[in-house]
Design goal:
Layout (H helix, E strand, L loop, with lengths): L5 H12 L2 H25 L7 H9 L12 H32 L3 H9 L8 H17 L5 H16 L3 H16 L1
Length: about 180
């Protein structure tokens, strides 16, 4: 009761003095009202949009695709499905590598090397910082099915606090890495 407004305190008193049926009706009405507010919040969320950077990457690396294939819905759907499958497999591979690195007490740099070993990428300080962040979240959520959603939420939080500055984002991830090492 301490953190309630005076009008809310009055409602609580009235609720306790009501009949069982009256209380249930009030609870049901309150639940329906809350559901309406949650639905309004969900519908206010803008749809996902590809960033310009991602669009540039996709345009640059779309070799061997016929010109204008994105306008042929049936064939474009096949490509989209395959790309989605490949990305899911890569995410699974990364998650399994992180899990194995925890069990074997592998250091972050070695983990970053193993993650990019089949790619032309090289482990950088920024990559190591992000891998440390991913491993930290894995430990927190114990690898639950919400793992990638939690990663996205953590990165969104970091981006908002860093005001989009790449330097600040890397520093934040490095702090996570430093805390993990100590």
């Amino acid at each position: 009761k301490k953190k309630l407004r005076p009008d809310q305190r009055d409602e609580v008193e009235a609720f306790f003095s009501d009949t069982v049926l009256g209380r249930q009706a009030k609870l049901f009405i309150g639940m329906m009202s809350l559901e309406n507010k949650v639905d309004a919040f969900r519908s206010a969320t803008p749809p996902y949009q590809l960033s310009d950077d991602l669009k540039d990457i996709l345009k640059r690396y779309r070799f061997d695709l016929p010109v204008g294939i994105e306008h042929d819905y049936a064939n474009w759907e096949k490509i989209s499905t395959y790309v989605s499958f490949a990305l899911t497999q890569n995410r699974s591979k990364v998650k399994k590598a992180i899990k194995a690195s925890i069990k074997s007490n592998m250091n972050i740099f070695a983990l970053a090397q193993s993650i990019v070993s089949s790619t032309p990428c090289r482990p950088t300080l920024q990559l190591c910082a992000r891998v440390a962040l991913m491993r930290s979240v894995y430990v927190e959520c114990r690898g639950s099915e919400k793992y990638w959603d939690l990663i996205d939420a953590r990165l969104e939080f970091i981006r908002s606090k860093a005001d989009g500055s790449a330097v600040k984002i890397t520093r934040c991830c490095l702090l996570s890495w430093d805390l993990q090492i100590s």
